[in-house]
Amino acid sequence: MARRIFVGDVQGCREELERLLEELRFDPTSDRLEPVGDLVNRGPDSLGVLRLARALDAGGVLGNHDLHLLRTAAGTRDLGQRDTIQDVLGAEDRDALLGWLATRPFVRAWEDVLLVHAGLDPTWDDPVAILEGVDPYLPHPASDFATRVRYCARDGSRPTSDWPPPSAPFAPWYEHWTATREERRTLVWGHWARAGLVARDRLRGLDSGCVWGGRLTAWIAEEDRLVQVDAARTYSDPLAG
After folding, report:
1. Are 70 and 135 in contact (CB under 8 A)?
2. What is the pTM of this model?
3. Can you state the angle between helices 46-55 and 94-102, rounded to 10 degrees?
4. Could you tell me whether strands 186-189 and 203-205 are parallel, antiparallel, or unpaired per DSSP bridges?
């Protein structure tokens, strides 16, 4: 049976991704890999992750770290002190890898699943239509929301900071999304390691902080089953932001 396998933020943790695929008994001839975004950065092998994901013809969506890589490569962003994407920028196959990465959308929708990296504005009637055609190389309010939101208000406004948790009217974006519509699809996202794994009702938040020394998590949609592997070590300091 063909399976859609949604994987939380990899962030350059190639070893853990390979172990997770082995644990899943991933079959590239039938299974479909759907990363939640942030394939790169902070971890030790962003180049290896991109090469593996491209070789497996992975689907998935763009995350904020993916956008940072694309824009840094284009010369519109500067490398940060904690960035670990230099291996991609210096690779012989960088153009092929970046071209592949840039074709990932900001949201993917199936009849039963809605996938985004960070979250969806509760005022969006059709997030696919709103995000379709948004250039990943250029700043845009919609793509910024989809790749960075954690808390928001019902009108889509966001707090100035996500920590400590903001007070009302702000709440996790998915609470407003499900409160304002009859959503029958399962929402799948990443981006929020501090919140940990979310697996209740039709909610699957899959960022379990692998790069911070946590776990890498997969959700198999057709089996409604979670599979995790432990990080080999802590690659980046979570207290550094």
Report:
1. no
2. 0.97
3. 70
4. parallel
